């Protein structure tokens, strides 16, 4: 017997009842505990020492954005990063205070939460706990969404863990923590499915209030998710307007307006700062080429990662990586839907084709996924907009998580309506599918050696910073080389945010890196690079700098020529990190320093 009609809402009466039975809260709590245990197993975080080691640091250059996330958590811990406030960091951007107001960041509440935890358990443990919380929330949210749609709890439970531990989450992790917080997407899709229903959502309904809450939550999350949610709500509003007249579009406009208001609220500092100081287009630099490199590609949804536990799949993934022209997603196999995700997608495709043949209505999920491909695929609508200068959403590969959420919720709905002969058969099938999906999706467990390597890198940087503070007076300024504009400007051999590393451990030093590029106050560093080396050092001393910091990985010769020149100039007091990658050379600041001219 086959039942392939999607269960969107059930009866009208049951749809308006958004409250979940009490037993579901117990199941959700158990789900959260199970997700916690799976997470700790995957990342091998069972000891206090392992929790004080961040999930990523220096070992993988693809994940070096992690230092930016850690720096923002420290800024929040120190009370310097708040919503609605101008964000200026005294320890960065020397000789000025670093300006973090030109680059919009919606997720300030997330960093504030992490900063609050950092006060109690330390920056690295708080960062790890924040990632864990994001994946636990994803599981609980998916379960709640499915139950609100009247799906079977056992299939909702299994689907929730598959969704929470998608390869997407591991690919982004701590270094893209704002992307890893996709937990609210199932709730967004509940709102969309309600709005697409024949009756839609009306003002004053419990569902409408719920939709506004979801819209606000979405507005303070990553803008990629807000963008697609707003598109789907707009489509739903137009459908209701076509069915019932233009007044029926008002709820959709209210929902979009709430998401937009939340986005603007989180960026009041950027808005007012640019009103006061003028626009700064250089702070966010986008190039069309990246829209193709990081555009959504169907092949990325299908090809398994090269570290897959099944050898043939691993060989397939490895062979694919050798023949790439464009990037395989953003991060390591971030777009991979997994065996069950692909199976659910194939199920939806087969049902849709059958309905086309039989001239029946297509599932709503089909239209939403088709739009995602039309919009986000390489060369799609997003790419066309990019050729016209609108290049904000350069990494459309991130929308693969929307596709996974859609097909998983579709499959859960279908399996919930399947006429199982015995109840225990559904339980056994759900457990089997869950085990296969987790085996398929999760990367190899973090090894003890990987933990040790990360801990050693942390210890090296911490010891190096402590030695700098021993040799330099409080509030001493340190000039960092190579010169790297902030943000989003990786150097040769080092990540875009590697200069934040000593900031994570410093209590009193001030560093030259870390102020938004594009302002006249920050142009002095580029002018300094036009001087001879001796003139540049003299100028730094005039500005009041007490030390020059070199990241050796940023120089083809490991900085040997610069260090030799400094020694020949009489600057022989040097501090070197335990891992020999960082060097600090003490210079002689002027007793009457002057600020660099801003022009």
Topology readout:
Blueprint lengths: L11 H4 L6 H22 L4 H4 L14 H12 L10 E2 L8 E2 L8 H14 L1 H26 L4 H12 L2 H6 L4 H4 L4 H12 L9 H14 L3 H22 L5 H17 L1 H10 L10 H6 L4 H5 L8 H12 L15 H20 L6 H13 L4 H7 L12 H17 L6 H19 L6 H24 L5 E5 L28 E2 L12 H5 L4 H11 L1 E7 L8 H9 L5 E3 L5 E5 L13
Parallel strand pairs: 3-4, 3-5
Antiparallel strand pairs: 1-2, 5-7, 6-7
Helix pairs in contact: 2-6, 2-7, 4-5, 4-6, 5-6, 6-7, 6-10, 7-21, 7-22, 10-11, 10-12, 11-13, 12-13, 18-21, 18-22, 19-21
Short key terms for the protein model shown above:
599 residues, mainly alpha, 5-stranded mixed beta sheet, two-stranded antiparallel ribbon, globular, disordered N terminus
- Rg over CA atoms: 26 Å
- The number of distinct structural domains comes to 2
Mean pLDDT: 92
Helix content: 40-55%
Which structural class do the helices and strands define?
mainly alpha
Distance between the termini: 75 Å
Summed up, the helix count is 26
Give the strand order, joined by hyphens, for the main sheet.
Answer: 4-3-5-7-6
- What is the beta-strand fraction? under 5%
Reported for the largest beta sheet, the result is:
5 strands, mixed
Q: Got a strand count?
A: 7
What does this protein look like?
- The protein has about 600 residues and is mainly alpha-helical.
- It has two domains: about 10-50 and about 120-440, no CATH class; about 450-585, no CATH class.
- Helices cover about 55% and strands about 5% of the residues.
- The strands form two sheets. A five-stranded mixed β-sheet has the order 4-3-5-7-6. Strands 1-2 form a two-stranded antiparallel sheet.
- The longest helix is centred in the N-terminal third of the chain and has 26 residues, at about 125-150.
- The protein starts with 11 loop residues before the first helix and ends in a 13-residue tail after the last strand.
């Amino acid at each position: 017997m086959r039942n392939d009609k999607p269960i969107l809402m059930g009866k009208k009466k049951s749809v308006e009842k958004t409250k979940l039975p009490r037993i579901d809260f117990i199941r959700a709590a158990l789900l959260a505990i199970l997700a916690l245990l799976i997470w700790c197993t995957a990342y091998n975080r069972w000891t206090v020492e392992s929790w004080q080691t961040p999930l990523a640091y220096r070992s993988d250059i693809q994940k070096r954005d992690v230092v930016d996330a850690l720096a923002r958590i420290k800024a929040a811990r120190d009370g310097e990063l708040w919503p609605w406030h101008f964000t200026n960091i005294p320890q960065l951007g020397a000789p000025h205070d670093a300006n973090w107001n030109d680059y919009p960041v919606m997720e300030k509440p997330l960093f504030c939460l992490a900063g609050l935890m950092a006060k109690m358990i330390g920056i690295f443990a708080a960062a790890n706990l924040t990632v864990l919380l994001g994946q636990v929330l994803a599981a609980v949210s998916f379960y709640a969404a499915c139950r609100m749609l009247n799906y079977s709890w056992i299939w909702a439970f299994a689907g929730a863990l598959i969704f929470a531990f998608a390869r997407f989450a591991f690919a982004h992790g701590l270094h893209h923590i704002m992307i890893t917080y996709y937990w609210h997407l199932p709730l967004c899709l509940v709102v969309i499915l309600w709005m697409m229903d024949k009756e839609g959502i009306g003002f004053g309904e419990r569902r409408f209030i719920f939709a506004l809450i979801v819209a606000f939550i979405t507005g303070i999350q990553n803008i990629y998710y807000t963008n697609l949610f707003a598109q789907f709500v707009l489509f739903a509003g137009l459908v209701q307007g076509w069915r019932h007249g233009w007044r029926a579009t008002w709820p959709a406009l209210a929902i979009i307006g709430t998401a937009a208001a939340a986005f603007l609220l989180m960026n009041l500092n950027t808005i007012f700062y640019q009103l006061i100081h003028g626009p700064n287009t250089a702070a966010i630099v986008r190039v069309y080429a990246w829209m193709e490199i990081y555009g959504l590609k169907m092949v990325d949804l299908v090809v398994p990662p090269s570290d897959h536990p099944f050898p043939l799949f691993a060989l397939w993934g490895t062979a694919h990586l050798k023949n790439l022209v464009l990037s395989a997603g953003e991060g390591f196999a971030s777009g991979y839907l997994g065996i069950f995700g692909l199976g659910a997608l194939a199920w939806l495709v087969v049902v849709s084709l059958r309905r086309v043949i039989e001239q029946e209505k297509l599932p709503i999920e089909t239209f939403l996924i088709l739009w995602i491909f039309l919009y986000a695929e390489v060369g799609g609508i997003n790419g066309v907009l990019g050729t016209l200068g609108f290049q904000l959403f350069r990494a459309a590969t991130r929308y693969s998580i929307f596709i996974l959420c859609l097909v998983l919720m579709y499959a859960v709905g279908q399996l919930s309506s399947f006429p199982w002969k015995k109840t225990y058969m559904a339980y056994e099938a759900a457990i089997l599918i869950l085990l296969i999906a987790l085996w398929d999706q999760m990367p190899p467990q973090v090894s003890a050696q990987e933990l040790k390597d990360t801990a050693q890198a942390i210890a090296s940087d911490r010891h190096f910073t402590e030695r700098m503070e021993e040799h330099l007076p409080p509030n001493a300024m340190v000039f960092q080389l190579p010169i790297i504009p902030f943000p989003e400007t990786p150097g040769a051999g080092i990540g875009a945010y590697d200069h934040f590393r000593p900031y994570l451990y410093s209590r009193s030093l001030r560093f030259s890196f870390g102020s938004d590029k594009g302002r006249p106050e920050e142009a002095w560093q580029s002018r300094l690079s036009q001087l001879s080396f001796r003139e540049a050092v003299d100028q730094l001393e005039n500005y009041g700098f007490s030390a020059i910091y070199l990241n050796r990985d940023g120089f083809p010769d490991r900085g040997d020529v610069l260090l030799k020149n400094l020694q020949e100039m009489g600057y022989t007091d040097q501090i070197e990190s335990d891992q020999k990658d960082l060097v600090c050379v003490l210079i002689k600041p002027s007793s009457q320093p002057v600020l660099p001219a801003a022009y």
